[in-house]
Amino acid sequence: MKPRITLYDYLHKHWLLVGILTCIFFAGIYPELGSKNGPLHTEYSVKYGAVTVIFLISGISLKTESIYETFQQHKLHLFIQGFTFVFIPIFTQIFVKILNYFGVNPWVLRGLVTVACMPPPVSSAVILTRAADGNETAAIFNSVLGSFLGVVFTPILLLINLGFTTLVPLLATIIQLTTTVLIPLFLGQIIRNFTGFRGHTLPLNTIGQCALLFVIYTTFCDTFETPEHHLSATDVLASVFSVLLMQIILLGLSHAIAQCFQKHFTIQDVITIIFCSTHKSLTLGIPILRILFHGYSHLSQISLPLLVYHPTQIILGGLIVTQLKDWVQLHRSKRPPV
């Protein structure tokens, strides 16, 4: 007879999802608090606070040997970057042609195509991979690699898919990734290897997830604060439905295709693929949209898919984290003892 699961047990097991939904609730009540111009000064507290904490914790938690091993996983990196910059743009072009038959606003469809050309985000995919017991080191490597590759590939993809493009600020991207990701990661490794501190006395995983929740809260505050000029209810509903359907299909395809290469990828690698290859960056995407479509009266419709995509990828990630973690534990339990 299975033990009875209490409400506390359920909430404890799914606490990240509960935390995400709570963040959305409070962001909806008082978005001014966590918005860009709010009292929390998110341009500093998120970028140089929460994100830095996330990667400092990763630096402390990761074994140095695992970092060296990650550099050798060429097939995994090729799969993730290929899915991000090749497969998703091609899939989106087909997806958009299908949506066009249902009368979806063509400017919203342009927004979907623009989203498909974006690089991956830095923090959310890493935290979700860690929460699901995936290959965290590979997630960090591919998030950083994808951001650097986006400087080159995103303008090219925009030119191919939209017919016009813009330059991605190379120096600003390098400075941001260095200060918020590489330096904290390096400091974490120094702390781990020279002080012997491994974080066993502190709930580092929980602290990292709380930092992600702060990022999520401020993201939704900005979303709720964004003025919806010239947006009809039909455009909003079409964007939400299109993005949700697109992400569910991409999550399923990334998992199914990765499973076809079981001899090359472990279960942990597959989890990394699911999150890192399907997530898209809001931080880089919004400035690019504003440069590309500056002066367009349809800017709000074009921006809508990206504004919807970012929170949706976090919510869907929170929904499947527990199932993926159970999948890893089940696989470990079936592994024969050494």
Task: Tell me what the structure shows.
This protein has 338 residues and is an all-alpha fold. The protein has helices at 7-13, 15-29, 42-61, 64-71, 74-100, 106-116, 124-131, 136-162, 170-195, 204-225, 233-259, 267-276, 282-292, 299-334. Helix 2 (15-29) packs parallel to helix 10 (204-225) and helix 8 (136-162) runs antiparallel to helix 9 (170-195).
Give the SSE layout.
Elements lengths: L6 H7 L1 H15 L12 H20 L2 H8 L2 H27 L5 H11 L7 H8 L4 H27 L7 H26 L8 H22 L7 H27 L7 H10 L5 H11 L6 H36 L4
What descriptive keywords fit this protein?
338 residues; mainly alpha; 14 helices; 75% helix
SS elements, strand count: 0
Derived structural class: mainly alpha
Helix content: over 70%
Number of separate helices: 14
Q: What does the overall shape look like?
A: globular
Kindly report how far apart the N and C termini lie: 30 Å
Order of helices and strands: HHHHHHHHHHHHHH
| Unreliably modeled segments | none
pLDDT averaged residue by residue? 84
Largest sheet geometry: none
- Strand proportion, as a percent range, falls in under 5%
- The value of Rg in angstroms is 20 Å
Summarize the entry for a quick read.
The protein has 14 helices and no strands. It has about 350 residues and is mostly helical.
